[in-house]
Amino acid sequence: MKQSVCPICEQGRLIAIEDMDDAEYGGVRRRLPLHYSECDVCGSETATPEQTRHNKRAMIAFKKEVDGLLTGQEIVALRKRLGLTQAQAAKLFGGGPVAFSKYEKDDVTQSESMDKLLRMADQIPAVMPSLAKQAGEDQLLLRINESRIRALETRRYVSNELKQAGDSNASCKHHAQQFKLIKSASAMEDTLDVG
Ligand SMILES: [Zn+2]
Fold it and tell me: How far is the CA of 34 from the centre of ligand 1 (A)?
């Protein structure tokens, strides 16, 4: 980091310090990273806008966790599972064009209702197509439906294969084959979901 001159004594240089500090929220105590600068002559402590932002993000992430809300990292993972860009997520879930950038960097805490909607979209397959339709996102709706159909077809294909394998032979060899089919099917569905 670039060292700058101390604004207090105008002689010393500001040294960037990465420390830990106790934080308390909702009855929970936690050691959080604390970034600041200290003058090597007069000892004054200041924080650059970047350091302040860093500290604020750590605090917001901690508060989200205590309040039982999705943290920024969890929202990134959830959005990627749904196969959405930040802009698409904002169109579907609301919150304005930069909402997801802010939630994901822990600059802003999502509302409780936004948090619930995100969890529902992640857990209930019917939510995403409905939101895409409401938002008038035809291309996205098409893609979501296609990936759901492919997932259903995979499931149907596998259950047929399993049935045939069970009908023709019940030997250990076939059990092994069934196992492989189930594994490859779930791997295929994982890929489809990410879309
Ligand atoms: Zn100084």
Answer: 20
Domain count, the chain: 3
Averaged over 58-64, what is the pLDDT? Answer: 97
C-alpha of residue 2 to centroid of ligand 1, in Å: 16
Pair (35, 52) in one structural domain: yes
The answer to whether residues 47 and 77 belong to one domain is no
Structure tokens that stand for 92 in this block? 């579907």
User: What residues have their beta carbon closer than 5 A to ion ligand 1?
Assistant: 6, 8-9, 12, 39, 41-42, 44
Quick: pLDDT tens for 14-52.
999 999 999 999 999 999 999 999 999 999 999 999 999
CA of 38 to the centre of ligand 1 (A): 8
Burial letters 43-60, b for 16+ CB under 10 A, else e = eeeebbeebeebbeebbb
The residue to which tokens 């939510």 are assigned: 127
Q: Where are the beta strands (DSSP E) in 8-162?
A: 14-25, 28-39, 45-46
Query: Which residues constitute the domain of residue 23?
Result: 14-66
Average pLDDT, stretch 144-159? 80
pTM: 0.71
Domain-located, residue 9: no
Phi/psi of residue 106, nearest 5 degrees: 60, 35
52 plus 77 within the same structural domain:
no
Q: Are residues 54 and 90 in the same domain?
A: no
